[in-house]
Amino acid sequence: MGKTQGESDTNGEISFLFFASSCRQFGFSCQSLSQLKSDESEADGALATVLEVLKRIHNMFFDPALGGKVEDRDVRQMLRSVRKEILSGCKVVFSRVFPTKFQAENYHLWKMAEQLGATCSTEIDPMVTHVISTDAGTEKSRWALNQKKFLVHPRWIEATNYLWQKQPEENFPVTQTKNPHGHDHPLSNQNSEALRHTTLTPFQIKND
């Protein structure tokens, strides 16, 4: 059952970015559905996507081929297993995403990518498939472009996580724009527009 904002249990939480306050809570600068005076797509919106995930988990949970007692099975482990398939085979490197002197492995985007099945690294190598960056002018970003690797904004990971589906990389381009103080630029217009048409639904596994 979907949870309204603020409700949660040990299995997971589903919150919908229907109100502007929800967008601010989860750090998105896109307009909320209420601001757009719209609702999500019944066919491919977040609810429909999560429903398909839950149907798959249901079938896995009650699969007689697993043997043993149903009550001994852990749905949370199945959720983690399905989630790790989403970015399986992807190796990502982050560039100008983490705060200075921050331990990369402790950053939420690093952990999120690993939960989605990606391999994270601090160094580029031929096996890297994606460079996650907020600035196309960094050394790693230029390497990605030269090597024909995917160069995407961090919102790509967040959208993939919330929608339980790998999102099209072309919807999350990276620019070289920076503000006058030299900090990472805010969400680009292209990314904002892509997210505006995407209903992001956090459905995160919570451990006891």
Strand order, sheet with most strands = 3-2-4-5
Low-pLDDT ranges: 1-15, 179-208
- Number of E-type strands: 6
Question: Termini separation (Å)?
Answer: 19 Å
**What structural class do you assign from the helix and strand content?**
alpha/beta
- What overall geometry do the principal axes of the alpha carbons give? globular
Q: Secondary-structure element sequence?
A: EHHHHEHEEHEHHE
Helix content: 25-40%
How many helices in DSSP terms? 8
Strand content: 5-15%
Overall pLDDT confidence: 76
> How would a textbook summarize the main sheet?
4 strands, parallel
Rg over alpha carbons: 18 Å
Task: Describe what you observe in this structure.
Helices cover 33% and strands 9% of the residues. With 208 residues, the protein is an alpha/beta fold. The strands form 2 sheets. Strands 3-2-4-5 form a 4-stranded parallel sheet, with helices on both faces. Strand 4, helix 6 and strand 5 form a beta-alpha-beta unit. The longest helix has 16 residues. The N terminus and C terminus are likely disordered.
